[in-house]
Amino acid sequence: MTKRLRLTGSSFLLALLASLCLSGCHACQAQQPIAKTKDGYTYKRPSSGGTGKVYMGREIAAIMTATGGNWLDRDTREEEENSSRTIENMDLQPTSVVADIGAGTGFYTFQIAPKVPEGKVYAVEVQDRFIKTLKERRSKEEANHVMVVKGDSLEVNLPAHSIDIALMVDVYHELAYPKEILQSIHEALKPDGKLLLLEYKAEDPDVRIRELHKMTAAQIRKELEANGFRLQRQEDFLPIQHFMLFEKTR
Fold it and tell me: Could you say which residues form the signal peptide (predicted)?
C-alpha cells in the first residue's frame, strides 16, 4: 500500500515559506550584477568564443592557439589585409626599433625587418610553438636584428623607453589583461613612441570574422585613452581592419 505524506496546517505553511524563499534566492542570484574585481575586470558566463572576462564593457575573446598558424600565413592574407600598405604607413626609418607584439609566425615581423636594417625588431610572443617558429625563421633569413622575446599575460618584457613603434595586429582583443599589457607597452615606448593597432572592423557586417574577434573604433579609443594613449591618426585604407595609431600622453 502506498503511503502518502500528510502535512498539518502549520507544517504545510512552513514548507510553503521555505519553497518561496528558495525560489526567491534563485531569482535574486539571477538578477545580481556581474561581480566586479578590484583590478577593474568583471566576469560573466562566457559567450561562444569568449572567456567570460569583461573589460570596459567588452568580453575578451579566447586566444587563437598555435594550431592556427597556417591561417596566419595563408596565401590570401596580403590581398585581404593589404599588410604592405600598413607597413608603408608606419613611417619607419632605417634605425627604427619596432615591437611586433603577438608576432605569431612572423608575418609582419619579417616584412618589417628589411625596412629597419640599422634598427631592431622585437618579435614578442607567449606561445612556445610560435616562439620556436620565429627563431627558426630568424635563422633561416639571417635576420640577426630580429629579437624573439617570450612575453606573458601581464608583461611584454621589453626594455624600458626603447621602442619607437609597437604594433599589434588582430591581437589586442585576445589579451587576457589588456590594461596591464597597455601599461607595459607604455613603459617600453620612448617618450615620443607610438602604438599601432589593427583590429577587424566590428562596424562592418561584411567582415566575416567572429564577433568577439572584431572591435569598433570607439571601443578601441575608449580602452586606450583610459590607459595613457591618445589617437594620433586613423586611416580607412585597409579593407577589413581599423588602422589606428596612438601616441603616449603621460
Answer: 1-30
Integer CA distances (angstroms), 155 to 42, 117, 122, 207, 233, in order: 21, 27, 14, 31, 26
Rg (CA), the chain: 24
Whether residue 124 is contained in a domain is answered as: yes
- The DSSP element (H or E) to which 235 belongs, if any, is strand 229-235
CATH at residue 176: 3.40.50.150
Domain containing residue 147? 68-248
- Distance from C-alpha of 53 to C-alpha of 72, rounded to nearest angstrom: 25
Q: Can you tell me which residue has the cell 610572443?
A: 125
Instruction: Please report which residue ranges of 43-177 form alpha helices under DSSP H.
Output: 69-72, 77-81, 83-88, 109-112, 128-141
Bridging pattern class, strands 50-55 and 58-61: antiparallel
- SS3 percent helix, strand, coil of the chain, rounded to 5, is 35, 25, 40
Strand partners, 189: 163
Q: How many domains does the chain have?
A: 1
Q: Does 81 map to a domain? A: yes
What confidence tens digit (pLDDT) does each residue in 25-74 have?
Answer: 333 333 344 555 658 899 999 999 999 999 999 999 999 766 555 656 67
Q: 120-125 and 241-248 as β-strands: parallel, antiparallel, unpaired?
A: unpaired
